[in-house]
Design brief:
globular; 2 domains; single chain; alpha/beta; 13 helices
């Protein structure tokens, strides 16, 4: 990625770094997909470390650090501490970094079983028994949810920080987006087990707009029903899935134990139905 301006001009810009841990790179690609806006950011920021996009990799400290991916290996646990030391502001991007990601499915099983099935020489694989979000290891200043993140939210976050404004991204549910856009409710009209009522906005209600049920890729919504910051009412929605849509407990466990299944409200709900499944 080419940098605009002279070295003298770059010294007066905020320095940005992008780090990857256990992930698929999709959220870093969302940054590159900013296209023309990325060129403008390149004039406002000094993109000092971004291996996905540039061979120029400078040392810290950095003003803004974007971190993609979860902590999944012993090396990750020490590397994230070093990254935090170099960051004035650390921002996690995507479900892997904010919730442990789909690889957190290992948290409910024995990772050694996976290694034996997948790898011909599992003894060479150094992996933790769990996949955990960045916030469980270091202080995180801001979080961008999603799988992948929404590039508009990323642009808003960065421009707010450049302007000296405290970022405040929406946390309401996908359901509200559907109502505003006039989408027919797929749970009412089609009987689909949609997670939209408990999933935070960010995707533009993409799946319901195509007649499909939301599967929670932006994590739990906030602020419903108990006021600002309150967790979503997953218990009520799960009971609706079970009582009205006839989902059996094992299907409910799978529904909540997905991309963001390791984060608070979704994890707790899957545990509750897992216990019910085992008791029947």
């Amino acid at each position: 990625m080419a940098q605009q301006g002279s070295n003298e001009e770059r010294r007066h810009r905020l320095r940005l770094a992008v780090y990857k841990f256990a992930s698929c790179d999709g959220c870093q690609l969302s940054l590159l997909n900013l296209e023309d806006d990325l060129l403008a950011l390149g004039e406002a920021l000094d993109i000092a470390y971004f291996p996905e996009a540039s061979s120029r990799m400078e040392d810290g400290p950095f003003d803004l650090v974007l971190v993609e991916g979860s902590i999944s290996t012993p090396e990750d646990t020490s590397r994230i501490l070093a990254v935090r030391e170099q960051a004035r502001l650390l921002i996690t991007i995507g479900a892997c970094a904010t919730a442990g990601g789909i690889q957190a499915l290992r948290n409910w099983t024995d990772v050694e079983d996976y290694k034996r099935v997948v790898y011909p020489s599992p003894a060479y694989i150094q992996s933790l028994s769990t996949s955990t979000p960045i916030s469980e290891h270091v202080r995180v200043d801001y979080e961008l949810w999603g799988c992948p993140i929404d590039k508009g939210q990323l642009l808003r976050l960065i421009t707010d920080l450049l302007a000296g404004v405290k970022p405040k991204l929406p946390t309401h549910s996908v359901c509200i987006d559907c109502k505003r856009a006039g989408h027919v409710c797929v749970m009412v009209a089609k009987g689909l087990p949609c997670l939209g009522p408990v999933t935070r906005t960010g995707c533009g209600s993409l799946c319901p707009s195509m007649g499909r049920d939301c599967y929670g890729c932006f994590g739990p919504a906030e602020g419903t029903p108990g006021g600002p910051g309150a967790p979503p009412n997953t218990a009520s929605l799960a009971q609706r899935f079970h009582g009205s849509l006839n989902l059996i407990p094992v299907d409910l466990v799978r529904r909540f134990r997905g991309i963001n299944g390791s984060v608070g409200p979704f994890r707790n709900e899957s545990h509750a139905w897992d216990n019910r499944r085992e008791s029947t």
